[in-house]
Amino acid sequence: MKLPVLVFACWLTATLSSIAAPLPLDKLTQTLPEYANREYARQKLKVHLVLSGNIRVAEQTANSQVLDVLTLERFRDLHGDTVPVLVQRRISLGLASDQRWWLSDVQSTVQPIPESLDAKFGPYLEDIPTPRTAPPSTTGMPPATHLQSAFAQAISRWLRDVQYGEKITTDP
């Protein structure tokens, strides 16, 4: 009679060890500006992520997750002016055989800041006297895939730090 219990215990242990640890998306929401800005600085980009919306799981299967996040970012245009834009990102993650999440895709869509949202961002837009629209070069553009972008590198670093317990550094 002990054999079925032993088989059940082995099955349960194997099943529990094969379940990937859930990602702490609330921590990603909080630390995303820090990770992205560090990566932007490393790559010497004239971009600054100011604010991140709550990250939401859009799709989920046993081996993948798709996350949606809206960020407020400041870009410097060719004239040196600061242009605030909203960037809607779709982050696709895959689950490796060692039960660790990895970044498989990032799609970005740049959007203008609607007039109705200006007040909700508080001091983040105080240096912009009037609502702006997206730069002309991004208007009407389809979502762009940016797996090698600075933002994608920031997500990859966050995944590494969270899953492998790496110490977060603040070096640029």
Summarize the structure.
By secondary structure, the protein is α+β, with helices and mostly antiparallel strands. It has three helices and six strands, in the order ααββββββα.
Give the count of helical stretches. 3
- Structural class comes to alpha+beta
Give, in order, the helices and strands: HHEEEEEEH
The percentage helix is 25-40%
Largest sheet descriptor: 6 strands, antiparallel
Rounded mean pLDDT score: 75
Query: In percent, how much strand structure appears in the residues?
Result: 25-35%
Backbone CA Rg: 20 Å
Tell me the distance between the termini: 62 Å
Shape designation: globular
Low-pLDDT parts are 6-18, 126-142, 168-172
* Number of beta strands: 6
Description:
With 172 residues, the protein is of the alpha+beta class. It is built from three helices and six strands, in the order H-H-E-E-E-E-E-E-H. 28% of the residues lie in helices and 30% in strands. A hairpin with a 3-residue loop joins strand 2 and strand 3 (64-76). Helix 2 crosses helix 3 (150-164). The termini are far apart.
List the helices and strands and how they pair.
Elements: H1 2-17, H2 25-42, E1 47-52, E2 56-60, E3 64-76, E4 82-95, E5 101-111, E6 144-145, H3 150-164
Antiparallel strand pairs: 1-3, 2-3, 3-4, 4-5, 5-6
Helix pairs in contact: 2-3
What keywords describe this structure?
globular; about 30% strand; alpha+beta; 6-stranded antiparallel β-sheet; about 170 residues
